[in-house]
Write a structure and sequence with these properties.
Strand content: under 5%
Shape: globular
CATH class of the largest domain: Mainly Alpha
Helix content: 55-70%
CATH architecture of the largest domain: Orthogonal Bundle
Number of helices: 14
Structural class: mainly alpha
CATH superfamily of the largest domain: MetI-like
Radius of gyration: 26 Å
CATH topology of the largest domain: MetI-like fold
Order of helices and strands: HHHHHHHHHHHHHH
Number of domains: 2
Distance between the termini: 52 Å
């Protein structure tokens, strides 16, 4: 009897394994579908840069370039219409500088809110959260007036400084740093560390995961920013690449192929940053804080 019942006991396990295979198949099929939907625009951007304007608007639409041409890249990188390479360098300078300043200011403010008690802390925290509800467009006019009075019009600093102070960044770092054990700070003070030393040697290393995430977010925002650089910068040699590519959209002619080529080149640094820093971004925010 026990021999006859043995196969019956194995059936639920077999059924469970089959069900898991079905679930995995459905899950990966859905993920593949989303990957295709996300990847098609990038494929069209890549192949569209190898087409002429006539081929781009041919019907039926062909994702692949039937007769690839590199004239769009040659004209774009050759600087015939716009100084694209110089504008890419401008974007790198602005994005890197703005990211560095934002990380410094946000981490300092977040450290103060997370680890120190002072008068008005609750009010300032609520005020910090309230600023999230203020659209950037509302502050454009006063910011522009301030930039003009400071003489920073058509200057990289006019683009960098207003965007380097981020309420979101400060609150984000506060949320990450509040989980750092206060016992570590007390031990540091006993060993003679200064308050700046506690921030520099304990706060920042234990918040490297949050710093990495914030750095990517700020860099992406600065790298793709169009509105504020368009308002502040006035000469083509100082434009960032989004503003420069927008100048190819003329009144009588639009260089779609060059715009697609420039957009494809601009995505490469973002891909490289993600590939190089994905492990650091996914690290635990307080890894190594407490030894169990």
């Amino acid at each position: 009897m026990s021999a006859l019942s043995a196969p019956a006991k194995e059936r639920p396990a077999t059924k469970s394994l089959a069900w898991k295979l079905v679930e995995a198949t459905v899950l990966y099929s859905i993920l593949f579908l989303f990957a295709v939907l996300v990847g098609i625009p990038f494929l069209y951007m890549f192949t569209g840069a190898l087409k002429t304007n006539g081929q781009l608007f041919s019907f039926p639409i062909n994702l692949l370039a039937p007769e690839p041409t590199y004239s769009n890249y040659e004209r774009l990188l050759g600087g015939e219409e716009i100084p694209y390479l110089a504008q890419m360098v401008n974007s790198v300078i602005i994005a890197v500088t703005q990211s560095s300043l934002t990380l410094l200011f946000a981490s300092m403010v977040g450290w103060g809110f997370a680890k120190y008690e002072f008068r008005g802390k609750t009010f300032l925290t609520i005020f910090l959260l309230f600023t999230f509800a203020i659209p950037f467009q509302v502050t454009l006019v006063p910011l522009f007036q301030m930039i003009v009075r400071l003489g920073l019009l058509d200057n990289f600093l006019g683009v960098i400084l207003p965007s380097s102070v981020s309420a979101f960044g400060a609150f984000f770092m506060r949320q990450a740093m509040v989980s750092i054990p206060s016992e570590l700070l007390d031990a540091g003070r006993i060993d003679g560390a200064s308050e700046w030393g506690l921030y520099w040697r304990i706060g920042l290393p234990l918040s490297r995961g949050a710093l990495s995430i914030l750095a990517v977010l700020v860099f992406l925002t600065a790298w793709n920013d169009y509105l504020w650089p368009l308002i502040v910068l006035r000469t083509p040699e100082k434009f960032t690449y989004p503003v420069g590519l927008a100048t190819l959209n003329g009144l009588y002619k639009i260089e779609y192929g060059m715009i697609l080529a420039g957009s494809f080149i601009a995505t490469l640094p973002i891909v490289l940053i993600f590939v190089a820093g994905r492990n650091q971004i996914l690290d635990n925010l307080t890894i190594g804080a407490v030894k169990q």
